[in-house]
Structures are given as C-alpha cells and as structure tokens.
C-alpha cells in the first residue's frame, strides 16, 4: 500500500489569481507597496504566518506580522465566494484523482498550508468529501518544509513516511518529502520554477497529470527490515 499526498494550491488548484489579490490588499493595508507578483507567489505552500514573515522580512515585529495575517484573512474571506476569484482545478487533476482513487494499492491524502476550513470548502465545491483518507493542514501540523505533515499523515493511515509519494509545485513540498523519507514528484505548472524543484531534490518532474499515474504505478514500497 502506498500513500499519495497532494499539495493543493498550485498543484491541484489554480489559485494564483486569488492569492495574489489577497496579498496585494495585505501589503496596501499595511502601508507597503506590493512586491512583484512572482516574488509574492513564491511563498505559496507555507502556512500563513511563516509566509507573511518571509515576505515582510525578519525585522518586522510580531505584532505587524499578526496584523498582516489578519489583513490577508479578511481579504480572502471577502473574495472566497466571489465567482470572479473561484479557483479552478488544473487540467487533468480531477481525472488523476479519480483514477488513483480506484486503485486498491493507493491511499489518497492532502498536505497543505491552508487551514482545514479552507480545505473543506474546496472539497465541498468539487464533490471530494470523503475522498482523502488523511488531510494535513496548517491547523494541526508544522509548516512546510518540516516533515510533520507527511509523518502525521502516514501514521494516520497505518503507513510509514517512506511509503508515501509527495506531489507538489514548490521547493517546500519537495524538501518536506525528502526530509520525511518520502518519494517526491514536482509539477511544472505551479508557483516555483522547475529549476527550484530540481535543486530541492525532486525525484521526478511532470508537465501534466497524465505523467503522474505511471510514476505512482512504478513506485514499489519496500518491506520493513
């Protein structure tokens, strides 16, 4: 049995437009000029407070980090039900998840820097309730690239971290997977360039979801010594 863990933003879900808009409003709310789009989106995958801290800098006070995080949450809640900001799935994502769900040697999971409430909203919108056996979020696990999400997720389904495959679009996903002892697959369509995924040590890089299924099929779980 193998655990296939997906990141959400930038891997399954094309949420760049929504996240960027919320970050722009956050910077303006804090009286700062927004950073370039690519720089702001480079923090996608981290939990909210570490992400804000990385963007605003280590010399920013804890109070200002908390204030900026509150601006972001308010900006997100103001847009989350607006159809203009509704993030779609990437092409092939729904089909890949459905195909993996049919396999009797695969357990599906999510590992994301989003809150559980945000994840539940996404699952409901795509009819994915009950599809993922383990859901690791910023509410209950340390931020990527700490390996905690994979360690906890594997434990919840009775597997080892080395029985897992982590699929994500950022170096945070890849580093988390490597630190946990999992296999890692980077996707080329997300928030970090392929060069960063490769540098982080991704075992494979895919350009579309059709390339994922053969890699999952080829992954052989090693028996404990």
Automatic annotation (TrEMBL):
Record-linked InterPro entries: HAD-like_hydrolase_sf (IPR050155), HAD-like_sf (IPR036412), HAD-SF_hydro_IA (IPR006439), HAD_2 (IPR041492), HAD_sf (IPR023214), PGP-like_dom2 (IPR023198)
Residues annotated as transmembrane: none
What does the entry list under GO cellular component? cytosol
SUPFAM superfamilies in the cross-refs: HAD-like (SSF56784)
Example GO BP: DNA repair
Q: Which Pfam families match?
A: HAD_2
**Alphabetical list of PANTHER family matching this protein:** HYDROLASE-RELATED, PHOSPHOGLYCOLATE PHOSPHATASE
Q: What is this protein called?
A: HAD family hydrolase
- What is the source species? Labrys okinawensis
